[in-house]
Amino acid sequence: MTRTGEERAVARTGPWWWARWRSAVLDGGLAVVSALECGVEGIPFARDAGIPVSAGVVFGLLAGSVLLLRRRWPIAVVLVSVAITPAQMGFLMGVVGLYTLATCELPRRVIAALAGMSLFGTMIVTFVRVRQDMARGDLTLGDWFVPFAAVTTSLGLTAPPLLLGLYVGARRRLMESLRERADSLERELQLLAERAEERAEWARGEERTRIAREMHDVVAHRVSLMVVHAAALQAVARKDPDKAVRNAALVGDMGRQALTELREMLGVLRSGEPGPERVAVPLAAVGAAAAAAAWRGAAGEQVVAEGPCLSELEELVGQSAAAGMVVQLSVEGEVRPYAAEVEQTAYRVVQEALTNVHKHASGARTRVRLAHRVSEIAMQVENEPPPRAASASVRLPSGGNGLLGMRERVSALGGVFVSGPTEAGGFRVSAVIPAV
């Protein structure tokens, strides 16, 4: 894993301006070697200049030790090396200084100017020295050797460190840009992973809410009808045995239907198809959109395909009528098929509304209206005030989640849900769902 720029800045462990102790030791070693070189070269310089040898040695030691500052002030190091070139000192300082200067992020014109000064300074000094040697008779070559030696020596001391420094600096900047890009990509991947984990948690929560709605619709409606039939069975068990037998049979049918629907839902949860919990693992890699699509495709469509539809609405109303409710169903418009989730939502809205009538308004007259429109389907369940005697006959517990679940179902499909009491004292539930 790469380190960010802030982490690399914090990781500086060297003294002063050095990032690492290794760099400080290297520069210190180079400075010592350069100082010794200049100190030795200061001896002939002192003799030629007519000054004490000790002064020449001290001057060489001080000038050579400037190489210690090559990382901090590379321009100063190059200028010092150019300044002591006439004294035939600082060859190591000049080479290392030019290399360091070329690796720095300085304007190219500054690097070119200082490199040109070093090149011409070395060329002039070499030209003069070689010419003096030939004049003294130390060299017996032709006149062509003087400019050749000057050009060759100046290029040999200037071009290699300059080109190597430019290459190393370009490579260093390239690696730094690659590190920054890797750090940026790593941060983006981390953010994507965190966002994917949030979406995974959201998908799991949505699936838990959906399963809770399904369980509520199945259990609340069937069990409510069973309780109503059981109460009727208790009331007529002695007076009308035949009716008691029919109510007992209805209770058994309701229980078997409830168990069948519960088994279907549990079968979906336990099947080998990837559900929301199984999709949670690849969510960290594929992101939110793919997670939602995978969740809907893997879990949602299978449950919707096995859910109820509008063709079973008459049977649903018949079950409530068999439980003693005075209920009337009216259908308007041309009957046509809809998407599975639309039919299931419409069915569940009517089912939950009838369940609420059984719970809170037992014995009340109820009207169920279903309207097939051009681009939408509308449903309304309205009950009158319950009779006083009937309202206290059966008491059913309520979790208070029925209306909330209906609103969530309808809103998820882009529909409108309205519920509330009527002026006559009853209750009305209305929903409009787009026919997608």
From TrEMBL:
Catalytic activity: ATP + protein L-histidine = ADP + protein N-phospho-L-histidine
SUPFAM superfamilies: ATPase domain of HSP90 chaperone/DNA topoisomerase II/histidine kinase
UniProt keyword annotation of Lipoprotein present: no
Pfam families: HisKA_3 (PF07730)
Enzyme Commission number(s) from the entry: 2.7.13.3
UniProt keyword Transmembrane present: yes
Keywords: ATP-binding, Coiled coil, Kinase, Membrane, Nucleotide-binding, Phosphoprotein, Transferase, Transmembrane, Transmembrane helix, Two-component regulatory system
Protein name: histidine kinase
Organism: Streptomyces tropicalis
